[in-house]
Write a structure and sequence with these properties.
With 228 residues, the chain is an all-alpha fold. It contains 10 helices and 2 strands, in the order H-H-H-H-H-E-E-H-H-H-H-H.
């Protein structure tokens, strides 16, 4: 935990500031969303904690512990990108609408909402997603660094594709089937039944989301490497 604080002090400070903002929004609007967003960002941080534990266990040559932490990381990693689906909570909000104007009028036909709480909701969801995505992609970067030391570059790259697909599956399970990461142990039979019964949309969603995860990571890795 000390290394996490030392290496990612700015990330942790942002998370705590974000929680404060969410609780202020919760007080102002009494919307359960502002309780769930801090929880989702906390879950999004766990993969980074787990993968750092795995890296430390490898350095200390602790037999079995690296695999344990990596498996735990795999179960919780989808939480890091799941937050993007929280944007569905603005689908019933009206940010703009068309108004009638005279023919050839120079006035705009588009009117935008001046409800600051509405725009704040959009920004809070966006900030939570940005934080969660950064934390998640950083954990993948560390995992790839570990795998490239132990495995070939080809196997490591193939693993990223598999990871993207598993993440798409995990997000689908969480958003549409409403299972949590710990349900893998708490209710595995029901989870397997639901997964086996997935339809064509589920496969399409998983594929599209996998492309999003894979593309996001490639962009993050490029920026991360060029920053050094």
């Amino acid at each position: 935990m000390r290394k996490l604080i030392e290496n990612y002090k700015g990330l942790l400070l942002f998370m705590f500031f974000y929680w404060i903002v969410c609780f202020i929004m919760l007080y102002k609007e009494s919307n359960f969303l502002y309780f769930m967003l801090p929880w989702n960002t906390f879950l999004a941080l766990l993969p980074l904690v787990f993968i750092m534990k795995a890296e430390m266990a490898i350095r200390q040559r602790k037999v079995g512990w690296p695999a344990f932490w990596i498996i735990l990381w795999l179960f919780f990693f989808p939480n890091s990108v799941y937050v993007i689906t929280d944007f569905i909570h603005i689908t019933n909000d009206k940010f703009l609408w068309l108004v009638e104007v005279e023919l050839y009028s120079e006035e705009s036909r588009v009117a935008y909402s001046h409800d600051i709480m509405l725009w704040s909701k959009l920004f809070v969801i966006g900030a939570g997603f940005f934080f969660a995505l950064l934390a998640g992609l950083e954990s993948v970067y560390i995992l790839e660094r570990i795998s490239r030391k132990k495995l070939s570059a080809w196997i490591s790259s193939a693993g990223l594709i598999v990871l993207a697909l598993l993440t798409g599956l995990g997000v689908y399970i969480g958003r549409f089937l409403r299972f949590n990461s710990w349900d893998i142990l708490a209710d595995p039979i029901q989870l397997v039944k639901q997964v086996i019964g997935m339809d064509a949309f589920a496969l399409q969603f998983i594929a599209v989301f996998a492309c999003f995860v894979f593309g996001s990571y490639l962009l993050y890795r490029t920026i991360r490497k060029n920053a050094h």
